[in-house]
Amino acid sequence: MNETLFGIHGAALTLRSQRMGLIAGNIANAATPGYKARDIDFGKALDASLARARGDLAADPQSAMVWRTPTMPAMDGNTVELGREQVAFAENAVAYSATLSFVTGKVSTITRALKGE
After folding, report:
1. Domain count within the chain
2. Contact call for residues 40 and 64 (beta carbons, < 8 A)
3. CA-CA distance, 94 to 28, in Å (whole number)?
4. Directed axis angle between helix 82-115 and helix 9-28, to 10°?
5. Domain span including residue 81
6. If you compute the radius of gyration of the chain from its CA atoms, what whole number of angstroms results?
7. Rounded CA separation 37/26 (Å)
């Protein structure tokens, strides 16, 4: 029902939330020696999530998890680049907000229709 009611936006909202958590974890571990920064290939994860919703159990959204390759590796093995993570977090937050606004508008429209407004 989620896919038919909200289109891809329901799955996108879930993935954006998961990505936000990953990026926040990267930022929190910016000073942890040996920490390897992770991210989600959003397009690949969305495709896998939608395929799974259609019944393709072979599609795994977790396969879209990627390790970040640092531009300038740290001496302690940490691959987090704080500026890059902050930009990714801000971009993801804007996309999350836009998707949430769309879903909220859709729910509002449905609610008004049910009330007969």
Report:
1. 1
2. yes
3. 20
4. 150
5. 2-115
6. 18
7. 5
Question: For 51-88, what is each residue's pLDDT tens digit?
Answer: 877 777 777 777 889 999 999 888 999 999 999 999 99
pTM of the entire predicted model: 0.83
pLDDT digits (tens, 9 = 90+) for 7-55: 788 889 999 999 999 999 999 999 999 999 999 999 999 888 888 777 7
Neighbours of 65 (CB within 10 A): 15
CB atoms within 10 A of CB 86: 14
Residues 99, 46: Cα–Cα separation, whole Å: 13
Residues whose CB falls within 8 Å of the CB of residue 74, separated by 6 or more in sequence, listed in order: 80
